[in-house]
Each structure stands twice: as C-alpha cells, then as structure tokens.
Write a structure and sequence with these properties.
The complex is a heterodimer of chains A (533) and B (574). Helices cover 76% and strands 3% of the residues of chain A. Chain A has 533 residues and is mainly α. Chain B has 21 helices and 4 strands. In chain B, a hairpin with a 2-residue loop joins strand 2 and strand 3. The chains are: A mainly alpha (533), B mainly alpha (574).
C-alpha cells in the first residue's frame, strides 16, 4: 500500500520538477530565490553565533539584525504570494516528496510576517525589560533562545513537510520552556510552571507526532501536498481518521483550546515580561496556523469526519473558552494572569472562526491572528513596564499607576479597547468578520454569543482600568514613566492597533487571500531553490 | 466719536458683540486674579462703545446647513437693550471688583455676552443658542455660593430655564415648517409654533404662575451674582416679547396681573432680596402691559422702563447686597438702624427706592408714566387702575420698606463698616444715571425705538404721581402705627410654588413610594437571581473555583485523553 502511495506521489511531482528544471536553466538562482529558506535559516544560525561570540554587547545587535532580516524576507515573500500564487522551495534540490519542501502561500507568509514583526517590535523593548528581570550573565543565552524560538516558529510556518514541522515545533517549544524558566530570577514558581509546560507541551507534541505517524503509515509520505492527494484516495481509512484526531487534539493543546489550556496561564504569568509578550503574540498564533493547515490543506472540510469533529467538538469548546475563560479573567487579581485567561478566550474566537467552515469566518479567524497578536503584544509590554516600575503585576502593586505612568497606561487602555472590540481598534475588525460569518450561515445566536462574550471583556478590561486610574497610587512605587526603549515599542504596537482598526483593507485582504489559499489551494505554484542540483 | 477716528478699534465692528464677551471669558479663565477685575470692567465698556457706534442693519448674515442665520441685527430696539446690558455689565462687574472667584467672573462675562447675543439675534436659531447660553452661564452665579441649598435652587432654576429653551427650539422648528422662514420678527399668536415660542418667552419673563423660578433663584445667588442676574434674563425676555409679540392683546391682561399679584408677597416677605425679586416681577408687568398695548408710545415706554428699571433695580440689589456683604444677612427682622455706620449705602438705597417708586426727578417717574399714559390713551381703564394700584404698592414695599427696615426702624445693634469703595463707586455711578434720566429724560428718549413726543413733567402727571405717593406713604405709616405691617415677621413664604415645593413632592412621593415598592420587589428578585448566578460563576471561575485552579499536569493529560476519546468517537461515527 505504501509503495503504491509513494509512486503516486512521485507521479504527482514529476511535472512540477520538470517545470522547475526548465526555469532553473533560464536564470541563475539568486538571493531572492532562497528567501523561503533564509527566512528561517538566518535566525536559526544566528543562535549559535550569539553563543559562540559570547559577548553580551553583541548578542542584542545580532539578534535584532537576524529578526529584522526575517521580517524583510517575510514581507518580500508575502508580496510575492499575495496574488494567490505559492512558492515551492526544495531544500538541497531534493524534490518532494522525498526531499523537504518549503511551501509559501499567502497563509503562512502572513503568519511569518506576524511572527517576525512582533519579534522586531519586542526586541528593543526586551533589552530594557530583561536587564531588570534576568541577570546579566544569562543575557547571551536569552538571546540565543529567543532566536531559536523565532526560527522554530518561522520554520513551522514555512515548511510543507509534516515531520519537519514537528521538528521546528519542538525547537520552538524547547527554547520556549527555557525562556519561561528564566522567569525564576523574579519568581521561583516559574520553574515548576516551566516544568509543567514542558510536560504538557511535550504530551501535545507527542500526540501530534503520533498522528503524523498514523498518516505516514497509511500514505507513506510526509509532504503535506502529497498527503492531501493520497488521503483523498482512501476516504474510509480508519487509521487516517485516528491520525486526524491525534493531530487535532495535539495541536488543540498547543493553541490552548479550552480545557487543554492549563499550561498557558502559568507560562504567561511567570515568564519574563518580554517572553510573555512574545509568546502571547506568536506561539499560539503559529499553532493555530498549523491547525488551519492540517484542517484545510491536508484534510478538508469536505470530509465528513472533519466537519463533525469541528462542529461537535471544536465549536462547543470554542464557545466554552469564550465564556469560561472570560469569567475566570474577570476574577483574577494579577494583570498577567488576567491577560493570559483573556488570551484563552480570544483563541476561542479563532477556533470559532475555523469551526464555522465558511470563508468569511475563516478570514475573521486569520485576521484575528494578526489583530490579537498586536493587541496582546501591546498589553503584555505594558504590563512589563509596570513590572519594571511597580515591581509586580498584581492589582495591588499597580493601583493608580495610570497617574504615575500616563503614557504607558494610555497604550494599555488602547490595547484593552481592542481586546473588547471597540470600533476603531483592530479587535473590532476581526470580531466584525466573525459576526458576519455567523450571520452568513444564519447562526444569529452565535453572533449574539460573540457580542455577549465581548461584554465580559468589557468587565475585565474595566477592572484593569479601574485599578490603574481610579485608585490612588501607592506611596512606595517608583514614580517614573517607563524608559523610552520600552515606550516606543509599546506605542508602535498601540498605534498599529488603531491603524489596523481604521484601515483594515490590507489585513482583511491578506486574510481573505490566505483563507482562499487554505481552502482552495494556490492558483499556481512557482518552484524555486535547488542548491547543488 | 466715530469708528473712523479710531481705526484700530473699528476692526471691532467686524466681531459680533457676544463673541467679544466669549473671548473675554476665555481670557478671564486663564488670567491671574489680579488682572481679572480690570478685564471684567473694561471689556463691557469696550462692548458698550461698539454697540454705540454700530451702524444699523443686518450686519452678519450666515448660511449654515441650509439655514439663513443673522448674528447681528442692529436696529433701535436691539441697540437700546444691548446698550443697557453692556452698561449694567460694567457697573455690576465694578461692584464685584473684590471678587477673586474665577467661576463667577467667567460666568458673569458669558452670561452678559449670551444675553447681548440673543438681543442681536436676527433669527430664531441664533436666538435659541444664546437663550440657552444665558441659562447655562447664569446658573453658575447661583452655584457659586457653593451651598447645598444653592445647588438645589440652581438645579430648579436650570430646569426651568432649559425648559424654556427647549420650548423655544420646538416652536422655532414648527415655525420654520409653517412659514419657511426663521426670521425673528413680529409673530401672530394662533398656531402651535407661536404659542410654544410665546410660552418660552413667558417663562423667562416670569409670567404669573411661571414666575416662581425668579423669586426662588435670585435671592439664592451670591451677593454680586444677584446684581448681574437681575439685569439680563427677564429683560431679554421683555425684549423678545417686544420684538415678537408687540400688540398681542393677551399680554395687556397678563401684564396687569403681573403688576398686582407680586405686591402682596413683597409686602409680607422678610428676606429683602426676595422682596426685591417680587418687586422686579411687578415692574416687569409694566413692561408687558406696554408690549401688549403695542402703540409706539407704549413700546417706547417699555424700552425706556426696561432701561431705567435695570439701573434702579441693580442699585437696590447692590445696596442690599452691600449690607449682606457686611452683615451676612438680608432679613428685615435681623437688620435696622444701619444708617449710622453705612450712611452712603443708605443714601444709595434711598435713591434706588425713590427711583422705583416713581418720584418726580428720578428715573422711574419719567418711564413708568409713559406706560401709564399709553394705557390711558388706549382707554384701558381697568388696566390703568391696576397699574396705579401697583405703583402705590411699589412705593410701599420697595420705596419705603427696603430703606426703612434696613437702615432705619429699630436699632438692630449692628455696626457694620461702610460698603467697600468699589461698591460705593458702582452704586454712585448707577445712582447718578438714575438721577440723570430723571432730570434730563431727553437723553434716554433719544435712544428709544420710535420718535418721542412726550413730556413727563406736565402738571397733571406730577400732581397725580405726588397724590399717589402720598397715599402710599400714609398707608405705610398707618400700617406701622397700628402694628399691622407684616414686614418684620419671620417665615418662609409659599407662593404658587406651593404646587411644586409641597404638593408636587407629596404626590410624587406617593407615586414614587409605589414605584419603589414594585421596583424594589423586581430588583430583589433580579438581585437574588444575579447573586445566585454570580455565586455559581464565582464558585467555578473565581480564584477558588475549580476552573481557575492551576491543576496538576496529570489532570491536564486526563483532559487530553477525554477529548481525544470524544474526538475519536465523533470521527469514527461520522
């Protein structure tokens, strides 16, 4: 059976390979052709470079430069694929399905832009933040781990190979565990949290890899495009169904699908502030992307088992997350924990958009990836500034801080408004699309539930505002505004939150193209790469 | 002095007078305390000069959203009102020279500016905007006392004033639909639109039964605030009536009632500022009668009387205010014999009193007699009789009662210092104007809307008025001799405001109790439900709730297994 599948896969790629050979002969491969690999490789190789250089002074510039390069590359890739095309890059010139393929389309280029943009925005901020939260001797390691996490997340997005995806997922996860553990210099509970996160994250990854194993057993291939074709040929295969269930549950854990969210509140609240901001804005988003890729590119909504899994399991859990996590957030007394639970609720919106299985709702989910990323990045950076000055993120630590740190707090208010989904902020755009998606299907009750859960967000955001503005500041706090290195990234993000709330054409357009690419595949495939061939 | 002689100042005529005041108010909001009094006196003086030199005509038409507005309609009627408004702003602010309260000072400028803006308004929308502006600006003069009572009084005042504005706006909208014009000119009662506008004017003019806000609010304002308040709001309404409803017959009867009924309240009231408020109301009656008659003579009388009235009423409020400033009370029962230490203030009060009483050679005589003559010319004898009676009563309650009980009568033992110099100066200037008008009425007559051919100092007028005065004096003397004068009794006087101060609260209270009972039951039920729901949510989602627990890793894996199981079942069954 597997042999048959492999030959089918080879046949599927034969035509593409020939086409590629023809193109390669015409033009010599340049730097632009290797962008799909370089976007991942540059931060990946910068990590050991930082360690080898060993100098604390050099660590940050190298890290920043690598992140900047990734952002530029991701933007270049996105501009190439926004027309609806896809880029297929063959690592080492080995043609898929045997070789590893990086396949860039609008969906993952968009995610790579999010990830690298957040990294670029957070790094200047992290410089001031980690100086206060992590001892100097660990700074080199911090930067190396940050680069690894970044490279991992970008790799997960870029790759078109299921097992390669798992490897990158583990690279990013393992470095993330250590980054979370670095919070131990402020709070020892970061250690147990990181350990729990390690166990849970690994369990999720294991489920995922078990699922991949089932698929490989049934199809004999790991290439995702190939998998899609071969799965279509054996619709009744129980092994594939089991693989699907394992992958969905495993990734469900990674996206913090309620009730598989238990790793998240601790990890976000005990990690160093810069790490919280980076993780909250990127890690779950990339996991959501992986889920999207498997649900829509490898499998498809047309399969009855997927439709029922989404409708009967994911949709109820998404609704549960929207309400339960919001209620928990309301009762929190720690700003970071409150935001962490709010993130779980927000992931609920994304899962809802996915589970509705319509293109509008899916666009809503994808654009929410972006909007929630910048919103949460703003808020977590604001908290980091609070932690720097007030010494903690508990409500009692930051009472009246709105008067002490007016600029930081104003950005926090903008983030909070976006979290609620107030018109004029980014959060509104995605919720609007979600509601539209629900109404398109005639599910007006679902639209009402989305609005109702937004009201819960009003409550927990208001609690934060009340603490920050309506109480008198404590006497013992550091009465200074956050340093400029923090304020600038915070406000860049806050302004982005408003900018993408007011002019949503670009984000929504990219999200629609991405949804199109996910649901119907790319319009044409451009093959590039081929070093050593 | 024409604008050509002062080219720098001629630029002023490009700016509506009201905006001049708004700019001044902005400036007053930022200037230090030291510089504010000169601004407050100087700016209205500048405005007075501007009003004096403005050419006649519709100076500032403005097309806004398809509406044709007119910010500055200058004719003889609007000019005389604007002129007296700017003058009284000068005098009132001079009187308040000692004030360091920024809120009052800004409010005084805004208030005067809004009143002048309304006078110059050539259309109903502009009129409405300034109309509401006077309401909002003036309430701060009441609130500036910063007492609980003043706050509530201010709220009552504001509600009534804003109601008047809302009626005006509604009327203006209807009027626009009816006629297609927003022009503020002579209107004819008869349609809902004009009735609404009439009612709006009537509230501000303190028509009988719509008058309570006046006696409620004016005595409650600050010492200086009352002086300012007494000048603008009601006289603006008089102007509006003269402009919009001249010759409307019903006004004659309304005015007649207005002149008579406050007399009795004024006679028995103890608080001197409230006495003055009632007498103000009574004086408004004269003007309303004049508007109702609507002849050129009557309208001249109204305008002249408004002009003179603003001055002597302000003078009386100033002198009572000076006493209040020095002693802390304005109650007849607590005052008396103050002429010993406040002789100048006493003289000012007497000048104000004889002016309001209509003694020949003082301002009241030369203006009030115009209205009386107009009434007799129109052969409105019952009205004429009412006005004569009211004139005599004015003498009793304002002309004699005010100076007598405060400065003479029994010795209260108080020996307050003389009023401050700036107050004396303001009072002196006002008194001088009262006398000047009385001595040379031609000065005032030259300003009136229509050409005047009237000679107040005819034998008939003078003798008649002296008889009236004598009668008033005798009545007062007899009342004092036999101890019948109720003036020195304590008490709170309830007028027709009994309706809303006592009866309405009682009725409302009963309704409120019922509503409260029903609402309470409903709220309790909702509250119980809510408490139960919150308890349920808190028990699960709260910090101690199961959902918010930081569960051990094992339980997480349990969940993972459960969900995988569910997922497999769903996938297999599909």
């Amino acid at each position: 059976m597997s042999g048959e599948a492999a030959s089918g896969a080879l046949a599927g790629h034969g035509a593409e390979a020939a086409q590629a050979a023809g193109k390669a002969a015409e033009q010599a491969p340049g730097l632009m052709d290797h962008l799909p690999a370089l976007v991942v490789l540059v931060p990946f190789l910068a990590a050991p470079l930082v360690v080898l250089l060993g100098a604390r002074r050099l660590a940050w510039p190298v890290t920043f430069a690598a992140a900047l390069f990734s952002l530029a590359a991701a933007l270049a890739l996105l501009s190439q694929v926004l027309g609806g095309a896809a880029i297929s890059y063959h690592i080492g010139g080995w043609a898929p399905p045997l070789g590893i393929e990086y396949r860039i389309d609008a969906a993952n280029a968009f995610v790579m832009v999010i990830v690298s943009a957040i990294a670029v925005a957070i790094l200047p901020y992290a410089r001031a933040s980690i100086a206060a939260e992590i001892p100097a001797r660990q700074h080199v390691l911090f930067h190396a781990l940050f680069l690894l996490a970044l490279a991992g997340l970008l790799g997960v997005s870029a790759t078109g190979d299921a097992f390669n995806l798992f490897v990158f997922l583990e690279i990013s996860s393992l470095s993330t565990y250590v980054l979370v553990a670095m919070g131990a210099y402020r709070d020892k509970r970061a250690l147990t949290t990181a350990f729990n996160y390690l166990l849970m994250g690994t369990t999720g990854a294991t489920f995922f890899v078990i699922g991949i194993g089932f698929l490989y057993m049934s199809t004999g291939t790991l290439n995702m495009a190939d998998l899609a074709q071969l799965i279509a040929q054996q619709p009744g295969n129980r092994t594939i169904h089991a693989g699907f269930a394992f992958i969905l549950v495993g990734m469900g854990l990674k996206v913090a699908m309620y009730p598989l969210h238990l790793w998240l509140p601790g990890a976000y609240s005990y990690a160093p502030s810069a790490v919280s901001a980076f993780l909250a804005a990127t890690a779950t988003k990339v996991a959501v992307y992986v889920m999207l890729r498997f649900l829509f590119s490898v499998f498809g909504p047309a399969y009855p088992f997927e439709a029922s899994a989404l409708g009967l399991v994911v949709l109820p859990l998404a609704l549960l997350a929207m309400f339960a996590a919001s209620f928990i957030a309301i009762f929190q007394v720690n700003f970071k924990k409150m935001l962490a639970y709010s993130s779980i609720a927000q992931v609920g919106y994304m899962l809802l958009g996915i589970a509705m299985l319509s293109q509008t709702a899916l666009s809503g989910a994808i654009v929410h990836l972006f909007n929630h990323a910048i919103t949460k990045a703003t808020l977590f950076m604001v908290i980091g500034a609070y932690v720097l000055r007030a010494g903690g993120a508990f409500y009692r630590d930051i009472e009246g801080i709105g008067r002490v740190m007016p600029l930081t707090s104003a950005a926090g208010v903008i983030g909070g408004l976006s979290l609620i989904g107030v018109p004029g902020t980014a959060g509104f755009v995605s919720k609007w699309l979600l509601v539209q998606g629900a109404l398109e299907k005639g599910w007006w009750w679902l639209a009402l539930l989305v609005v109702a859960s937004s009201l819960l967000a009003v409550v927990y955001v208001w609690k934060g505002i009340e603490v920050a503005y309506l109480r008198s500041p404590r006497d013992d706090v550091d009465r200074r505004e956050a340093p400029l290195a923090m304020l600038v990234p915070i406000w860049v993000m806050a302004i982005a939150t408003i900018w993408f709330g007011l002019s949503a054409e670009w984000t929504v357009g990219a999200a629609r193209t991405a949804a199109e690419a996910l649901m119907h595949g790319a319009s044409e495939i451009v093959i590039s790469g081929g070093v050593g061939r | 002095m024409s604008p050509d002689t002062l080219p720098a100042l001629s630029a002023l005529s490009a700016l509506p007078t009201a905006f001049l005041f708004l700019l001044g108010a902005l400036l007053a909001a930022v200037l230090p305390a030291r510089l504010r009094p000169p601004l407050l006196v100087g700016l209205p003086a500048l405005a007075a000069w501007q009003v004096w030199t403005l050419p006649e005509g519709r100076l500032m038409p403005l097309a806004l959203m398809g509406l044709e507005l007119e910010l500055m309609r200058v004719d003889r009627l609007s000019r005389i009102f604007a002129l007296i408004f700017t003058l009284i702003a000068v005098l009132g602010n001079l009187y308040a020279w000692h004030l360091r309260d920024r809120v009052q000072q800004v409010a005084a400028l805004l208030y005067a500016g809004a009143a002048i803006g309304a006078v110059f308004a050539g259309d109903l929308i502009t009129l409405f905007l300034w109309w509401e502006g006077t309401a909002i600006a003036s309430v701060f003069l009441i609130w500036a006392r910063r007492t609980e009572g003043a706050f509530h009084t201010g709220m009552r005042y504001l509600v009534v004033q804003v109601l008047s504005g809302v009626l005006l706006l509604a009327g203006a909208a209807l009027y626009w639909r009816e006629t297609g014009s927003l022009d503020f000119t002579l209107m004819r009662l008869g349609s809902p639109a004009t009735w609404l506008i009439f009612l709006a004017f009537g509230i501000k003019a303190a028509f009988p039964l719509l008058h309570n806000w006046l006696q409620d609010a004016y005595p409650a304002a600050t010492v200086t605030g009352t002086v300012i308040l007494s000048a603008f709001t009601t006289k603006l309404a008089i102007y509006a009536l003269a402009r919009g409803f001249a010759g409307t017959e019903i006004l004659i009867w309304i005015g007649a009632v207005m002149t008579v009924f406050p007399v009795f309240f004024a006679e028995v009231e103890n608080d001197m500022r409230r006495v003055l408020s009632y007498s103000l109301n009574n004086q408004l009656g004269f003007m309303v009668v004049g508007i109702g008659i609507g002849s050129e003579m009557a309208l001249n009388g109204t305008a002249a009387h408004a002009f003179a009235h603003i001055l002597y009423k302000a003078l009386l409020f100033m002198s009572v205010g000076a006493v209040l400033y020095r002693t802390g009370t304005a109650r007849a029962t607590e005052l008396g014999g103050l002429y010993r230490t406040m002789p100048l203030t006493a003289i000012m009060a007497v000048i104000g009193a004889v002016s309001i009483s209509g003694v020949p050679l003082f301002s009241g005589f030369v203006t009030k007699s115009m209205v009386l003559s107009a009434a007799s010319d129109a052969h409105l004898w019952p009205v004429w009789g009412a006005l004569v009676f009211a004139s005599a009563a004015v003498l009793s309650h304002s002309g004699i009662k005010i100076p007598y009980f405060i400065f003479f009568a029994h010795d209260s033992g108080r020996r307050p210092a003389e009023a401050p110099r700036h107050m004396l100066l303001a009072m002196g200037l006002t008194a001088a104007m009262c006398i000047a008008i009385g001595l040379a009425p031609g000065l005032l007559y030259a300003l009136l809307p229509y050409p005047v051919e009237y000679h107040p100092y005819s034998g008939y007028h003078v003798v008649g008025q002296m008889q009236l005065l004598l009668f008033g004096v005798v009545a007062f003397a007899l009342a004092m001799r036999f101890g019948l004068h109720p003036g020195e009794k304590r008490g709170t006087l309830l007028d027709s405001d009994w309706l809303y101060r006592r009866a309405a609260p009682a009725v409302l209270g009963a309704v409120a109790a019922l509503v409260r009972a029903i609402w309470g039951a409903g709220a309790a039920a909702v509250g119980a439900l809510r408490a139960a729901a919150m308890g349920f949510i808190r028990a699960r989602s709260g910090p101690e709730g199961r959902l918010a627990h930081v569960w051990p890793t094992g339980s997480m894996v349990e969940w993972l297994a459960i969900i995988l199981g569910v997922m497999l079942v769903v996938v297999y069954l599909a």
